[in-house]
Amino acid sequence: MRAAAGLPLLGLRAALRQHPAGPSTLRSRAPVPHSPLVNALRIPRYTPSRSIHSSPLSAARQAIGKITPKRIAIPLGEGTSGREGMPKASVWRPIVFCIGLGGVAYAYASLYTNADTAQWMQALGSGSVWRMGREPTDRDLARAKQMQRVKVAREHLSTLSGRLGWLPSWAEEFIVRSYVMFSEWRIESPPAEVVPMAIVAGMGVIFLMWQSPRLQPFMRKWFLHRPVLLGARPKKEWANCVTLITSVVSHQGLAHYAFNSIALISFGSAAYTYLATPDPALPHLATSTHTPHFLAFLLAAGLFSSLGSHLFTNLVRLPRLLRALQSPARLSSAQALAAHQAILPSLGASGAVYGALTMTALAFPDSRVSIIFLPWFSLPIGLGVFGMVAVDIVGLIRGWRSFDHIAHLSGAAFGLIYYHYGKPAWTWLRIKMGAQPTSSTGYF
């Protein structure tokens, strides 16, 4: 946890809630969801495996609200900076990890897009004499892929009944009808709708994994990002970088998952449509699928938002905490307590959603959005984005800790940058990876 019970600080006076059954125990704060849509979200808290006991101070000590200050004996952890046992800031490894993973994702996405496009161009007779110099358009490629999906669905359906012959007739009929309905939806729906739904389904599996008590230690280690670690050896710090991306698709609470899923389906579809629309100012590249570009965009937006939150914690919040705790006059102050509680773990997809939302607002400024609790009321999308960003700025200034405001603002900044430079960069990368500009103007 960001406010974990093991920060390697000696003589720390933190605030603990008195346990009714005996000595007080240090409890970690719940992870901070990224959701921009829920203001009253509550995620259940859990207790770390090691509880640190403390003895109460004298009654003359001033209480902070309903919390009584305690003196806590915390052992030094490994990987400290050596300056009074203070933890080190983690900066350059997360930056290298995010740049490396994002670069590899875009390189693979461009290579896959070029290879898939070349395969379908060849299947449709690109360069053949009978085409008389007319190359297949993006619309032709999309129709060919749709017909291929129809063919595959029919083949699976013809063999499905034989495989289900051992089931009762009603069960066999239910499965066959369900498969037909799903196949029809997948074939007839545009990829801009299918791909976000597939991502939401994947996040649903991770959400269900959070609900298993046996998987809790695994999920906290690999699907919850902690910007400050105890015993931060290089190997452990590199491993912690993995959660910069896995935490993006991780949701511990049902409301958090539901609202981020609704937002991803809505704004993700619009972002996909924008990325699939050719820019007349750029060279036209034949494209059979825009899904790799969209997935690379979401991955980069999630990495950018997670990295922004991580760096802000390590470069601003952690030094502020260390300064407050190094001063003997402030060891038990509310300022030190607030700084200590500000370092929390985080998870959620709303940083990536903010990127898609901001890019959509810039690409389709005339669009209107509705508030989920007031579906009959709509407002311009630009005004909605401005209001959400303003709330995050106020929350950051005021020190609100319900959501990771830095992750939200970082995601919004990424969407702004990508709107201006994303398509030219993607076109340049595809050309560098072997794509050839065409004169065809038809598109999907």
Overview in brief:
With 444 residues, this protein is mostly helical. 55% of the residues lie in helices and 6% in strands. It has a 3-stranded antiparallel sheet with strand order 1-4-3. It has a two-stranded parallel ribbon with strand order 2-5. A two-stranded antiparallel ribbon has the order 6-7.
CATH superfamily descriptor: Rhomboid-like
What is the number of beta strands? 7
CATH topology: Rhomboid-like fold
**Range of strand content:** 5-15%
**Which CATH C-level class is it?**
Mainly Alpha
Q: Give me the number of helical elements.
A: 13
Query: What are the segments in which pLDDT stays under 50 over at least 5 consecutive residues?
Result: 1-29, 35-84
The assigned CATH architecture is Up-down Bundle
Cα-based radius of gyration, to the nearest Å:
26 Å
The succession of helices and strands, N to C, reads EEEEHHHHHHHHHHEHEEHH
Outline, from the CA principal axes? Answer: globular
Strands side by side in the biggest sheet: 1-4-3
- Percentage of residues in helical conformation: 40-55%
- Termini separation comes to 46 Å
Main sheet attributes: strand count, strand direction, barrel closure: 3 strands, antiparallel
Q: Strand pairing plus helix content: what structural class? A: mainly alpha
**Tally of separate domains:** 1
Assembly classification: single chain
Overall average residue pLDDT: 78
Overview of the molecule:
It is built from 13 helices and 7 strands. It has a single domain (13-136, 189-432), classed as Up-down Bundle (Rhomboid-like fold). It is mainly alpha-helical and 444 residues long. Residues 1-29 and 35-84 have low confidence and may be disordered. It is globular. The chain has helices at 92-123, 138-163, 169-188, 191-210, 216-222, 234-241, 243-246, 254-276, 291-326, 334-341, 350-363, 381-398, 405-432, and strands at 13-16, 32-33, 55-56, 68-71, 346-347, 368-371, 374-380. 36% of the residues are buried. A 3-stranded antiparallel sheet has the order 1-4-3.
